[in-house]
Design goal:
The complex is a heterotrimer of chains A (about 400), B (about 325) and C (about 180). Chain A contains 16 helices and 8 strands. In chain A, the strands form 3 sheets. Chain A has a 3-stranded antiparallel beta sheet. Chain C is an alpha+beta fold and about 180 residues long. The chains are: A alpha+beta (about 400), B mainly alpha (about 325), C alpha+beta (about 180). Chains in contact: A-B, A-C, B-C. At the A-C interface, helix 3, helix 6, helix 7 and helix 8 of A face helix 1 and helix 4 of C.
């Protein structure tokens, strides 16, 4: 064996680790046809939500083992944040979970506010929470249509896109961007809401509720959908906690866990009257059902927020040039995909020293090798669709 | 009158005319179905408009697509078996064009008056399975192979309910001849869909599976296998498969209309009137559009079955049900 | 009433959407799918984006002092500014000549621009504005670099700032009067 690490200045254990990593890569890339057929699903594929590659070893239609290979969309976010100022980072991180729009900015800004010991005024917190929930609605509506289309029912996704337009138009009239609002600032939000926005948003929330009813009729009640999803991809509650799942994947397994209620966040969730939806089954159907109920709940939350919007300023007193004092802080929030957290380390300069982004989809995908063992090939699509990941969230 | 015409003209002219009419009879309904249901009805059911730019309301879209497919590069996968790969679309098309031969359009309009009409039709429709298997195997790709194998299993499984549901109609009509079946419905007074309702439903589900349309489109399961056995086909070869799929839908709908909806007869009009020779094909076309509407409505609304659920439905539910249908029909036919 | 099997309810949903699309005015009205469908047939019909939509950036020359803040804060570094110092006549007779920054070149490369709005926000002199125009695609990438004159042209399309919702304490900003 040639010593590939001969000219590198590292000690023995590092050498062994390096060689082991190379060998592991080789194992995955080599198609050993000793047992069954190796099928590469992706990275270019209509089913995977982006450039995800799954190497599945099949025995006829049965999956013997499946391994997801992530990283085809790695954009180097954490390195980028080291050389960008705080407003620039806010712009960039919109694009991590590109469907969840506003929700990406919130944990980062909250972490920076914690370090600066600034608190945004109540009106700004209400606006933030309203936009956060609208981002959640837009994201989960896409999921509701998308899971049906993964299973073959092509109509549902058109309804999803049609009714999402109302929510996205509202986000655009307030912030200027449909998917990348770039609206959160350290100390508050960028601008106030234009006149007439509250009434229009409330009517769009009603349209979202109509959409949820339609999905219940078209998809959830459909016997074919139920027979494809019930009992498929069952995740017991302890396994879900072991693998670090979060969000609706946990709640679909019966675990009563929601960061909006459990974590002490300055955003306005504690002022609202809402409930956490769980389902005991833990299969793909329960994850779909939980997300459907969550969307409806989110519309009620947005209406409550807009009804109780306090008057006041939208920005606290912060200096023009933001220099966050030295320190470190970690804030995680209940994003549409799960728990997203930012660990911000600052050395008192214009740019953060290090930002570690904990994304929900990355941890959610970790259960897929265990989950995809012993299922049929069509169930791969069902299970991956029900886990719901966005590639930007996995790869950053 | 048309029958006398057939006797006076020479055989070769007769054959040429029939071939031309046969091509038109298959391709025109195909185009109409593609436009009406795939482009427009599917779009309206999804709150969108579909093609609008090519021609008024997108009516020339199929022509535009035809031109587009013609000018594409003819791609052969390098490991593909060239003959098998190239011949597969034609095998599928052959079975469709042969199916149309037994359709009666009026008391005297037909291509061939076979005494074993419907039996011939069922036998010939099985040829398309070979074409699909050829496509799946000859593409030298794992996706295509999986799609082809799934298709073979599905199509063979659903042929039995298809044939058995037709047997109920044959028992009631007393003949395998397609014209005889239409005449029997005229004599019976009411179309066979009423007494053979269960048979009609089984027939509809079986056609849905034979056409690999959702909810039975595992072979072409887009979200897992890209396009299954069609993955490696591009350009004009893909167009042939596409035409084959919709032509088969049109022809099967027409067969269903003949068997269950009275074919070319209109109620309250004498079945042997000469006017029916000319109006008959139009009536048949209208009924075909109705059954195709049902097929596409199911296609647009439902997600797809998994392969094992599909097979379970065919073998454990539909075949016993169709056998029961035959037994009940036979009892009624003998007793009354 | 017994509940219909889910499959039939699903058929009902698609049928209902079909009828709503084809007969948007109810069963008595004329069939008009172009009106009933949610498709907007661009470019025959154009839907105006909201006023705050981040379409393109407009530059008001008179306010710009070439302070370079926008070029520095841009995450993509897509703003190219060149200026020189000029001596302007003194305000009062007998005073010193004032040094003024004169803008030579102000280009924004919209092929690079992230449309984030940081430049508009940090400008201390309110020289940059958002306009909801979005139809400026070009055949050549080089044409996506908008120079000073083109950026000034966009000012015509900048909408007035709307009033805020009730309870707001933010003052509504005013657009500058058109430059000479």
């Amino acid at each position: 064996m040639t010593d590939v690490t001969a000219d590198l200045d590292i000690n023995d254990s590092e050498q062994l680790r390096y060689i082991a990593a190379q060998a592991a890569d080789a194992r995955v890339n080599v198609e050993l046809e000793t047992e069954g057929m190796t099928l590469n699903i992706g990275p270019q594929h209509p089913a995977t939500h982006g450039t995800l590659r799954i190497v599945a070893r099949l025995d006829g239609e049965l999956v013997i083992s499946a391994e997801p290979i992530m990283g085809y969309m790695h954009r180097g976010y954490e390195k980028l944040t080291e050389v960008r100022t705080y407003p620039q980072v806010t712009t960039l991180i919109n694009r991590i979970d590109w469907v969840g729009s506003f929700a990406n900015e919130v944990p980062f800004i909250l972490a920076a506010e914690e370090l600066m010991e600034v608190e945004a005024p109540p009106r700004a917190q209400y606006i933030r929470t309203a936009l956060f929930e609208m981002g959640r609605i837009a994201n989960i509506m896409l999921f509701l249509g998308d899971m049906a289309v993964q299973l073959g029912g092509v109509t549902a996704i058109f309804y999803a896109f049609r009714d999402r337009e109302f929510v996205l138009n509202q986000i655009e009239s307030a912030t200027g961007g449909r998917f990348h609002p770039n609206f959160n600032r350290i100390g508050g939000v960028k601008d106030d809401l234009p006149a007439g926005w509250i009434a229009e948003t409330k009517s769009s929330m009603q349209k979202v509720r109509d959409f949820c009813d339609e999905m219940e009729d078209l998809v959830v009640g459909n016997e074919i959908f139920q027979s494809r999803c019930r009992g498929v991809g069952v995740i017991p509650a302890e396994k879900a906690l072991e693998y670090g799942l979060s969000g609706a994947n946990l709640r679909g397994s019966g675990v009563d866990w929601d960061l909006r209620r459990d974590e002490d966040s300055p955003l306005a969730w504690k002022d609202l009257d809402w409930k956490v939806w769980t389902h005991p089954d833990g299969d793909s159907f329960s994850r779909y059902w939980v997300r459907l109920q969550e969307t409806r709940e989110a519309t009620y939350m947005v209406e409550q927020l807009l009804d109780g919007l306090p008057s006041g300023p939208i920005m606290a007193k912060v200096p023009r040039i933001i220099k966050v004092p030295a320190g470190e802080s970690y804030v995680q929030t209940e994003n549409p995909l799960g728990a997203m957290g930012y660990y911000v380390v600052s050395k008192g300069e214009l740019t953060p020293f290090r930002v570690k982004i904990r994304t929900a989809s990355f941890s959610n995908m970790s259960i897929s090798p265990w989950l995809l063992e012993g299922v049929y090939v069509p169930d791969i699509a069902t299970i991956l669709a029900s886990l719901y990941f966005i590639l930007g969230d996995i790869d950053r | 009158m048309l029958a006398s015409l057939a006797f006076t003209s020479p055989y070769w002219l007769d054959t040429v005319v029939k071939i031309v009419i046969g091509l038109v009879a298959v391709l025109l309904p195909t185009g109409a179905l593609v436009y009406l249901f795939l482009f427009k009805m599917m779009s309206f059911m999804q709150s969108r408009l579909g093609p609008m730019e090519t021609g008024p309301h997108g009516q020339l879209q199929l022509l535009a697509e035809f031109g587009k497919f013609l000018q594409k590069e003819d791609i052969f996968p390098s490991k593909a078996d060239r003959f098998v790969f190239a011949a597969a679309p034609f095998v599928v098309l052959v079975s469709t064009f042969m199916l149309v031969l037994v359709l009666p359009g009026g008391p005297d309009t037909h291509f061939v008056d076979l005494n074993t009409g419907i039996y011939f039709a069922m036998a010939v429709s099985s040829i398309s399975v070979i074409g699909i298997l050829m496509a799946g195997w000859g593409s030298a790709s794992k996706y295509s192979l999986l799609g082809g194998i799934r298709a073979a299993g599905q199509l063979i499984a659903y042929e039995l309910p298809l044939v058995l549901s037709v047997v109920g109609v044959v028992i009631m009509a007393g003949t395998l001849n397609m014209k005889g079946i239409v005449a029997a419905q005229a004599d019976f007074g009411v179309w066979f869909i009423i007494p053979q309702f269960i048979g009609f439903l089984i027939f509809l589900v079986a056609i849905q599976a034979e056409l690999t349309q959702p909810p039975f489109d595992m072979p072409v399961a887009e979200s897992e296998l890209v396009t299954g056995y069609l993955t490696e086909y591009s350009g004009i070869r893909f167009l042939l498969f596409f035409i084959g799929e919709f032509a088969t839908a049109a022809v099967f709908s027409a067969i269903g209309a003949t068997l269950f909806l009275g074919g070319w007869t209109i109620p309250f009009v004498d079945a042997n009137a000469e006017i029916m020779d000319y109006i008959g094909p139009l009536v048949l076309a209208a009924k075909m559009v109705f059954i195709a509407f049902l097929i596409f409505w199911f296609r647009i609304t439902y997600p797809r079955f998994r392969e094992d659920q599909l097979q379970r439905l065919a073998w454990k539910f539909m075949i016993p049900l169709s056998l029961l249908n035959i037994v009940v029909t036979a009892i009624f036919k003998v007793a009354f | 009433m017994p509940q219909l099997p889910g499959m039939l309810v699903g058929l009902g949903v698609t049928a209902k959407t079909f009828f709503k699309t084809v007969f948007p005015d109810g069963p008595t009205g004329p069939p008009s799918p172009s009106k009933g469908a949610h498709t907007i047939q661009y470019p025959h019909v154009k839907e105006a984006p909201p006023d705050r939509a981040r379409g393109v950036i407009a530059l008001h020359h008179d306010n710009c002092t070439a302070c370079m803040l926008c070029a520095r804060e841009c995450p993509d570094w897509c703003i190219y500014i060149e200026g020189h110092k000029e001596l302007a006549p003194p305000r009062r007779a007998g005073g010193k000549p004032r040094k003024k920054n004169k803008l030579d070149r102000f280009d924004i490369d919209f092929a690079l621009c992230m449309y984030c709005g940081i430049c508009v926000e940090v400008c201390p002199f309110d020289a940059l504005f958002w306009s909801p125009e979005f139809e400026f695609s070009e055949m050549k990438i080089a044409d996506m670099l908008h120079d000073k004159e083109r950026l000034a042209d966009w000012m015509h399309t900048v909408p007035e700032y709307p009033a805020y919702e009730a309870g707001s304490e933010v003052k509504v900003k005013k657009l500058p009067s058109p430059s000479s």
